[in-house]
Specification:
The chain is built from five helices and no strands. By secondary structure, it is mostly helical. The chain starts with 9 loop residues before the first helix and ends with a helix. The relative contact order is 0.10.
Amino acid sequence: MKYSTFEELPVWKAAIQFALKVFEFTNKADFRGLGDTKNQLERAALSISNNIAEGFERGTTKDLINFLYFSRGSAGESRSILRLCESVPRFANFKFEISSLINQATGISKQLHGWIDSLKDSKIKGVKYFNQRTKQQAAKSKEDEEFDRQMAEFRKELEQKLKQQDIDNAKARAVSAGE
């Protein structure tokens, strides 16, 4: 599926939901005495969706991949801070919430990893480079792939017909020999 805006991306939506849940958590929990941990967690969580958006808007596959890696890094940073929170006694009442946030961040990281892998295999350099010539090349490539698919299907059908014909001929010879 093609997306025309980053707001349509399922991983961006998941990152926004994650950031909102992080803000709910940091609003309830007592971070006093832990330095800048609360702000760092909030910034890392927000950075996930922001990097997805910025990379998407850059217009090149290379930039998008770089920003998706930044986004994965922020998801990892969020998980690391949440793991720290897990081990702080004052957050004992938040174990389930912290675990849920870690799972969300892990899921986002996995989605980003899958997207990055698919982009690495892409021949398209990005919409910034998508002009009339590249559109024609992409259309031609798609036509060629469809032709190859149809030919493979035709070849398979023909082979099946030839096999059936050989079977029918063998049966006919056997009947003729038995007369």
